[in-house]
Protein backbone atom coordinates (compact mmCIF):
# COMPACT_ATOMS: atom_id res chain seq x y z
CA UNK A 1 0.00 0.00 0.00
CA UNK A 2 1.20 3.47 -0.89
CA UNK A 3 2.15 5.74 2.01
CA UNK A 4 -0.05 8.47 0.50
CA UNK A 5 -3.15 6.23 0.31
CA UNK A 6 -6.22 7.63 2.11
CA UNK A 7 -9.53 5.92 2.79
CA UNK A 8 -12.36 5.61 5.27
CA UNK A 9 -14.29 2.55 6.37
CA UNK A 10 -17.72 2.39 7.95
CA UNK A 11 -17.45 1.17 11.54
CA UNK A 12 -21.05 1.59 12.66
CA UNK A 13 -24.18 3.67 12.28
CA UNK A 14 -22.98 7.20 11.57
CA UNK A 15 -19.34 6.37 12.28
CA UNK A 16 -16.29 5.82 10.10
CA UNK A 17 -12.57 5.51 10.63
CA UNK A 18 -10.21 7.35 8.31
CA UNK A 19 -6.81 5.85 7.51
CA UNK A 20 -3.62 6.72 5.71
CA UNK A 21 -1.00 4.40 4.30
CA UNK A 22 1.43 5.35 7.08
CA UNK A 23 -0.71 3.67 9.75
CA UNK A 24 -2.51 6.66 11.25
CA UNK A 25 -6.25 6.71 11.88
CA UNK A 26 -8.95 9.15 12.95
CA UNK A 27 -12.48 8.49 14.15
CA UNK A 28 -15.16 10.31 12.16
CA UNK A 29 -18.73 10.67 13.34
CA UNK A 30 -21.70 12.94 13.47
CA UNK A 31 -21.58 16.25 15.33
CA UNK A 32 -21.62 15.51 19.05
CA UNK A 33 -20.43 11.91 18.64
CA UNK A 34 -18.22 10.83 21.52
CA UNK A 35 -14.57 10.21 20.71
CA UNK A 36 -14.80 11.29 17.08
CA UNK A 37 -14.42 14.31 14.84
CA UNK A 38 -17.24 15.45 12.58
CA UNK A 39 -16.29 16.18 8.95
CA UNK A 40 -16.72 19.91 9.62
CA UNK A 41 -14.40 19.70 12.62
CA UNK A 42 -11.84 17.86 10.50
CA UNK A 43 -12.03 20.60 7.88
CA UNK A 44 -11.33 23.26 10.48
CA UNK A 45 -8.60 21.22 12.23
CA UNK A 46 -7.00 20.58 8.84
CA UNK A 47 -6.93 24.29 8.10
CA UNK A 48 -5.38 25.10 11.49
CA UNK A 49 -2.89 22.26 11.11
CA UNK A 50 -1.85 23.54 7.71
CA UNK A 51 -1.38 27.03 9.10
CA UNK A 52 0.76 25.75 11.97
CA UNK A 53 2.91 23.52 9.82
CA UNK A 54 3.33 26.21 7.17
CA UNK A 55 4.89 28.67 9.63
CA UNK A 56 6.62 26.20 11.95
CA UNK A 57 10.15 26.52 10.56
CA UNK A 58 9.92 30.32 10.31
CA UNK A 59 8.82 30.59 13.93
CA UNK A 60 11.48 28.14 15.13
CA UNK A 61 14.18 30.24 13.44
CA UNK A 62 12.82 33.55 14.76
CA UNK A 63 11.77 32.73 18.34
CA UNK A 64 13.42 29.39 19.11
CA UNK A 65 12.68 25.77 18.37
CA UNK A 66 10.79 25.14 21.62
CA UNK A 67 8.14 27.81 21.15
CA UNK A 68 4.62 27.11 22.38
CA UNK A 69 1.69 27.78 20.08
CA UNK A 70 -2.02 27.16 19.92
CA UNK A 71 -4.35 27.78 17.01
CA UNK A 72 -8.03 27.96 17.90
CA UNK A 73 -10.25 27.49 14.89
CA UNK A 74 -13.98 28.05 14.65
CA UNK A 75 -16.74 28.57 12.17
CA UNK A 76 -20.47 28.09 12.47
CA UNK A 77 -22.31 26.01 9.91
CA UNK A 78 -24.97 27.83 7.93
CA UNK A 79 -27.81 25.31 7.88
CA UNK A 80 -29.76 26.67 4.86
CA UNK A 81 -26.71 26.57 2.57
CA UNK A 82 -25.14 23.55 4.36
CA UNK A 83 -21.75 25.30 4.30
CA UNK A 84 -19.24 26.97 6.57
CA UNK A 85 -19.30 30.51 5.15
CA UNK A 86 -16.50 31.73 7.43
CA UNK A 87 -13.73 30.01 9.34
CA UNK A 88 -11.67 31.96 11.87
CA UNK A 89 -8.23 31.03 13.14
CA UNK A 90 -6.70 32.60 16.25
CA UNK A 91 -2.99 31.92 16.62
CA UNK A 92 -1.80 32.27 20.24
CA UNK A 93 1.92 32.83 20.29
CA UNK A 94 4.25 34.53 22.77
CA UNK A 95 6.11 37.21 20.84
CA UNK A 96 6.93 39.35 23.89
CA UNK A 97 10.68 38.78 23.52
CA UNK A 98 10.66 40.51 20.13
CA UNK A 99 10.96 44.23 19.59
CA UNK A 100 7.81 45.83 18.17
CA UNK A 101 9.39 46.27 14.72
CA UNK A 102 10.59 42.63 14.67
CA UNK A 103 7.13 41.48 15.76
CA UNK A 104 5.47 43.46 12.95
CA UNK A 105 7.92 42.02 10.41
CA UNK A 106 7.34 38.48 11.66
CA UNK A 107 3.56 38.87 11.46
CA UNK A 108 3.86 40.02 7.84
CA UNK A 109 6.07 37.02 7.05
CA UNK A 110 3.64 34.63 8.74
CA UNK A 111 0.61 36.00 6.91
CA UNK A 112 2.42 35.91 3.57
CA UNK A 113 3.65 32.34 4.17
CA UNK A 114 0.15 31.11 4.97
CA UNK A 115 -1.39 32.93 2.00
CA UNK A 116 1.22 31.54 -0.39
CA UNK A 117 1.90 28.06 0.99
CA UNK A 118 -0.96 26.71 3.14
CA UNK A 119 -2.42 24.20 0.69
CA UNK A 120 -5.62 23.67 2.67
CA UNK A 121 -6.34 27.38 3.02
CA UNK A 122 -5.61 27.99 -0.64
CA UNK A 123 -7.84 25.06 -1.64
CA UNK A 124 -10.73 26.29 0.51
CA UNK A 125 -10.52 29.91 -0.64
CA UNK A 126 -10.20 28.97 -4.30
CA UNK A 127 -13.02 26.39 -4.22
CA UNK A 128 -11.69 23.00 -5.30
CA UNK A 129 -13.61 20.90 -7.79
CA UNK A 130 -14.70 17.66 -6.12
CA UNK A 131 -15.62 14.58 -8.18
CA UNK A 132 -17.50 11.62 -6.75
CA UNK A 133 -17.74 8.27 -8.52
CA UNK A 134 -19.55 5.25 -7.11
CA UNK A 135 -18.26 1.77 -7.93
CA UNK A 136 -19.76 -1.60 -7.08
CA UNK A 137 -17.49 -3.64 -4.82
TrEMBL record:
It comes from the Bacteria. Signal peptide: none annotated. Pfam families: OsmC (PF02566). This is OsmC family peroxiredoxin.
Amino acid sequence: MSSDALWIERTGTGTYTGYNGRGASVLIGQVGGAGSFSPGELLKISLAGCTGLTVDAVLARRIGDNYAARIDVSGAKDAPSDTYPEITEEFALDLSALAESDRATLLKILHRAVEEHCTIGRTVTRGAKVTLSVVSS
